[in-house]
Amino acid sequence: MSKSLTIQTLFIFTAKVYDKLIAIVFFIILSRMLTKEDYGTYRQVLLVFSTITTAGVLGLPSSVNYFVPRLNRLAQKSFLMQTVGLLAIIGFVCSVGLFASAGILSRAFDNAQLATLLRYFSVCLFCFMPTSFYISFFISVDRAFSASVISVIMASIKLGLILFAAFYYRQLDYIIYAWVIFLAIQFFIVIVKYKLWCGTCADRKKEIPLLTQMKFALPMGMASVIGVIMRRTDQFMVSGFFSTGEYAVYANGSLDLPFYTVITASVMAVLTPYLVKAFKENRVSDFTHK
Predict the structure, then answer these.
(1) Is there a contact between 169 and 43 (Cβ–Cβ < 8 Å)?
(2) Alpha-carbon span 149 to 155, nearest angstrom
(3) Would you say 62 and 265 are in contact if contact means Cβ atoms under 8 Å apart?
(4) What is the SS3 assignment for 100?
(5) Could you tell me the pTM of the whole model?
(6) Contact 216/63 with Cβ under 8 angstroms?
(7) Residue 283, helix vs strand vs coil
(8) Which candidate, 250, 254, 235, places its Cα nearest to that of 109?
(9) What are the residues whose beta carbons fall under 8 Å from the beta carbon of 229, sequence distance 6 or more?
(10) 24-43 mean pLDDT
């Protein structure tokens, strides 16, 4: 790996570790500050949200790593707008679906409090999905440092909002409100960053049809769905058959320290666009010679 790629990987790795550390801090603090039932409800909300966002994006973020490095600047703009628009539609549909099915999930988990909180959180799906691929996109256009800076800023805003809600109000409802506010802020900042990168899009050039993008993305999306089923089945089973308080204990006990996966994720996030570009330019020798 060249020096440039190593530096980019270091930027992304640092940002991802920072974000993961903040998530662990949340779990530690909220475990102490909330009742066992409220903390279990909080983890159930995040369980539902993360499951929908992982499966619902249909592999579209993965298509960014493949198509964007192969395009010229004008076509990259068009592809970005196409992906944002498609994910915004998916996010809206998922938001409506979660709002409508919140009562069903609440009964399945035998947690009356869950329905109201899921309805509050449903708007987060629309805010999150169109911005879910911003790190992949900016890496693909050689803006790894910008991606890492945005990620650190977003994680810091999340830290401030949620800890303020936790320490000042000490109620689960306000922690959920803080999440909604954070994801709305992230949506605004990332969309503005997209717009600044694009400049004026009046001269967009479309090279990747929507059908071509979907043909590439859907198999990746199916793999994500299978992965979600494998990783989350135990948590849904515990939520459905045990009390909310017991699920809270299980959720913390089954928490994996994610740092080893962050290393591979950071390397591949930077390396994949480089590989795509190199193969397009027939620079296979880059991988066989020093």
Answers:
(1) no
(2) 10
(3) no
(4) helix
(5) 0.90
(6) yes
(7) coil
(8) 235
(9) none
(10) 92
**pLDDT at residue number 207:** 75
**What is the per-residue pLDDT across 85-98, written as a single tens digit (0 to 9) for each?**
999 999 999 999 99
**What residue type is 272 in one-letter code?**
T
What's CA 160's distance to the chain center, in Å?
Answer: 19
The string of pLDDT tens digits covering residues 223-241 is 888 988 888 899 999 999 9
Q: What separation in angstroms does the CA of 77 have from each of 72, 92, 142? A: 9, 22, 14
| SS3 labels along 171-234 | CHHHHHHHHHHHHHHHHHHHHHHHHHHHCCCCCCCCCCCHHHHHHHHHHHHHHHHHHHHHHHHH
Residues in CB range of 62: below 8 A, 6 or more apart: 136, 216, 217, 220
Among positive and negative, which fits the CA dihedral 63, 64, 68, 69? Answer: negative
Residue 243, sorted as left (phi over 0), alpha (psi -120 to 50) or beta, turns out to be: beta
Which one has a higher pLDDT value, 73 or 177?
177
pLDDT of 172 > 80? The answer is yes
Amino acid at 103: G
Across the chain, where does the E strand assignment appear?
none
